[in-house]
Write a structure and sequence with these properties.
- There is one protein chain.
- The protein contains 13 helices and 23 strands.
- With 400 residues, the chain is an alpha/beta fold.
- The strands form five sheets. It has a seven-stranded mixed β-sheet.
- A hairpin with a 4-residue loop joins strand 1 and strand 2.
- InterPro entries: Flavodoxin/NO_synth, Flavoprotein-like_sf, Metallo-B-lactamas, NADH_oxidoreductase_modular, ODP_dom, RibonucZ/Hydroxyglut_hydro, Rubredoxin-O_OxRdtase.
- In the N-terminal section; belongs to the zinc metallo-hydrolase group 3 family.
């Protein structure tokens, strides 16, 4: 049975949600599931904007057939060739023999990599700024490479001023009936998933996001339709402000997040003492994370959110504690920058984790490392309290 919603009188959401999938891209936990958005435009010609993941193919096809109501599907717009959006290209081409696939040159090359399809006479290749008239609705295409694949483009519908934004402006989380941003409490229920989605999926490509935002700034946009998460039909400035901060690596909040790895609880103790000192000094909304038990995607999202971070880890095999090493690797890979960091190391003998963490942070852009770093030898002792207090003062001074 179909399950669709009207975007406008002539444009329909024909996607669906998967609440059974545990790991997005087999990497990122999605306890709230994920949506796969697809949009069908009905005019003199019909056009489907992207498909969905194979996990919801049956629902998707029922939705498409219901909206078409016996009409043929004329065009399939492929904004992004990742399998969670392109998995039904071959299915649609078999079911609609006159269907033409619309994409840029890189799109069509990727189709040949994923599918053994005879594309002869069944494609429309578009370039930057090209248009495709459907009747009253005219589609215009803009290339958005490396957000987050090289073939990505976005589609602008000129009549109703709708941006079909591919993976940009997306979020983890299944659609629970409420499709539009003004039907939900976004800050309470969606912001953390939207941040975690952006920072881990797109976060590395901030300069490319900035280039795309600049390119699209001249368009009048009434609605943003991403491939995951809610459709935005109001308060677009809020969403653009978030993307502006995330893509320029500007902290979203003036806040402190403390990340620790601890084998037997002693490094954790040092972090808890520092967090309490900060709280007594008036710092609010402090966040503390165990890097061994918190998924790294959440840790990365918090480094994008917070202006100040504390990294605390023991020395392990003359290196950095493995879970912290993994976190630092992802920070570097995802281009984290412009943060203030403090370091706590632990080691019963030959502690070197602080030195090594400093070296990794030094490979990132514009990372300010506070002094003094703190060394704990085995367990926190009364002699460490003065150093912890000095580290607290350094954090407070840097937050002024």
């Amino acid at each position: 049975m179909y399950c669709t919603r009207n975007i406008t009188d002539d444009i329909f959401w024909v996607g669906g949600s998967d609440r059974r999938l545990a790991l997005f891209e087999n990497l990122f936990p999605i306890p709230r599931g994920v949506s796969y958005n697809s949009y069908l435009i009905m005019d003199e010609k019909t056009a489907l904007v992207d498909t969905v993941d194979s996990s919801i193919t049956r629902q998707f096809l029922e939705n498409v057939y219901h909206v078409l109501n016996g009409r043929p599907l004329d065009y399939l717009i492929v904004n992004h060739m990742e399998p969670d959006h392109c998995a039904n290209i071959d299915e649609l081409m078999l079911r609609f023999p006159d269907l033409k696939v619309v994409g840029n040159a890189k799109t069509l090359a990727f189709i040949s990599q994923f599918y053994d399809l005879d594309l002869e006479g069944r494609t429309v290749t578009v370039k930057e700024g090209d248009t495709l008239p459907l009747g009253a609705h005219i589609l215009q295409f803009f290339l958005a490479p490396m957000i987050h694949w090289p073939e990505v483009m976005v589609t602008y519908e000129q009549k109703e001023k709708i941006l079909f934004s591919a993976d940009a402006f997306g979020s983890f989380g299944a659609i629970n009936g409420n499709l539009f941003n003004d039907e939900i409490n976004f800050d309470r229920d969606w912001l953390s998933d939207a941040r975690r989605y952006y920072t881990n999926i797109v976060g590395k490509y901030g300069p490319q996001v900035q280039a795309a935002l600049k390119k699209l700034s001249g368009l009048e946009i009434n609605m943003i339709c991403p491939l995951h998460g809610p459709v935005w039909r109001s308060d677009l400035g809020y969403l653009l402000e978030k993307y502006g901060k995330w893509s320029t690596y500007e902290p979203e909040d003036k806040a402190v997040a403390l990340f620790y790895g601890s084998m037997y609880g002693d490094t954790e103790n040092a972090v808890n003492i520092l967090a309490s000192m900060l709280a007594e000094a008036g710092v609010k909304d402090i966040a503390v994370y165990d890097v061994s038990s918190t998924h790294v995607s959440t840790l990365i999202a918090e480094t994008f959110r917070c202006s100040h971070i504390v990294l605390a880890a023991p020395t392990y095999n003359m290196g950095i504690y493995p879970a912290m090493q993994n976190f630092l690797h992802d920070m570097k890979a995802l281009n984290v920058q412009n943060r203030t960091a403090a370091i706590i190391e632990n080691g019963s003998w030959a502690p070197v984790s602080g030195k090594l963490m400093r070296e990794v942070l030094g490979e990132m852009k514009n990372m300010r490392i506070l002094e003094p770093a703190l060394t704990v030898k085995s367990a926190v002792k009364s002699g460490n309290l003065e150093s912890l207090s000095a580290l607290k003062d350094a954090l407070l001074d840097s937050m002024k």
